[in-house]
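Question (not urgent): is this output format expected?
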Amino acid sequence: MAPASEPVLTSDRALVIITTELRGYVAPCGCTSNPLGGIAKLAQLVADKKRSHGEPMIVTAGNFLFESGASKATTLEQDEARARVVAEVYRDAGVLAQTPGPFDLMHGGGKLVRELKNPWLEDGAVVSQRAAELNVAFIGVRAPPFDPRALVVKVALARERNDAVVALTSLDWPQARALAQAVPDLDVVIAAAAGEPHAPQRLGGTLIVDAGEQGQRVGLLELVRGATAGSKRWAYYDGGALELSQLQRQLAAAESEIAALPKNVDPALKNLQMGRREDLARQIAELQNKPPPPPKERYLRYSLVPLTKKMPDDKSALAKMKAYNATLCESSKRATEGLECEKAPPGAPSYIGSAACGSCHAPALAQWKTTKHAHAVETLEEAGKLCDLSCIGCHTTGFNAAGGFCSPQKIGALPDVGCESCHGPGSIHAKTTKTEAPFVKAPGEALCLQCHTKEHSDLFDFKTYRPKILGPGHGAK
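Got this back:
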């Protein structure tokens, strides 16, 4: 379902700003077609909403500090430093409540969660804030098993003192649905669902929402007081988005059915199908031109705002990120000091660098220099990430591989995505010109997918991308 348009904020409504499953994500890597997210953009959005709407309530749900429950010994210092930056930016933004996820509590036994002075919401704990003459309570619900009976009591007590009760959880989407069914007095359940955001769902009187992962999108939950007294529960208004998405799906199905009709189909049947398509198109146009009006009684509205590349950055948060980047080379040096990369076993090849390959394959090397692969380290340098141990492996050749290198300070002849990234270490081939294994003459798609993941290269298609690296002397036909 298409998200509702971003709300126009007025003094009759309270605003909750939501991020879920941040996972220590400070900024997009920039390798995707539409990079989304970044804590500096989030901080600026919060600042803008404060100017337009007083004090919004900022909350986070799910894994916040880390993308896994443990770090490698070499990346631990960088992972924790990045988590500290994320936590500090959110504190500066005025975050009200955070329900940590299982990775946060597993990582180092939850040491950093205990150390950081962020407003972590304990399981079953309640925190309230007043905005737009509304009192909103948030109750923490961590991973199951949760005790429905205890939660029912706590929610009932919170409802006596507040206008709305919101569960801030580390639950995934199915678990959040189960919570809404078990504790029906909740007004909203904020789920910590990974992946793409779900369409908001209403179960009974409870609205279930999430904002996707890695802070790529921000959820805006409005609580509008309404002009008339009504039910104690909140209505939900989506501006017709659900009805619109249903009509659009029906239209797509109708068009598919028309396209599949045989040439000798009965004209009456075809006219009937065409008429149905025209009727659906008319309903869609009418709904888009005139959405249904909001309820007169109090209601909830939820929208998603993608943090796009064009959005401005908060200068203070950006400065913190740059300061963190400036520490990466020293931290990587400490983490890898004395670490010797595994040597190639006897009889196995080692890495020699693209320049050495070019001594025999000059046309292929010249073609390679025209590709983005030949500038992979340059992109890291421009972003201040050359020593980021989570990035360098896909921007160099032979990192952490036997016969390669294991420290950013020891790149040597192996910068960029060179010949040996695709064809394998070349020392034996250089001496013997043999092209059998372990030399890879024609690399396959599986090799490329090690770095061209959906997260970092969303448009990657092997058949489309492969010709871009071929050329004179390098496989061109």
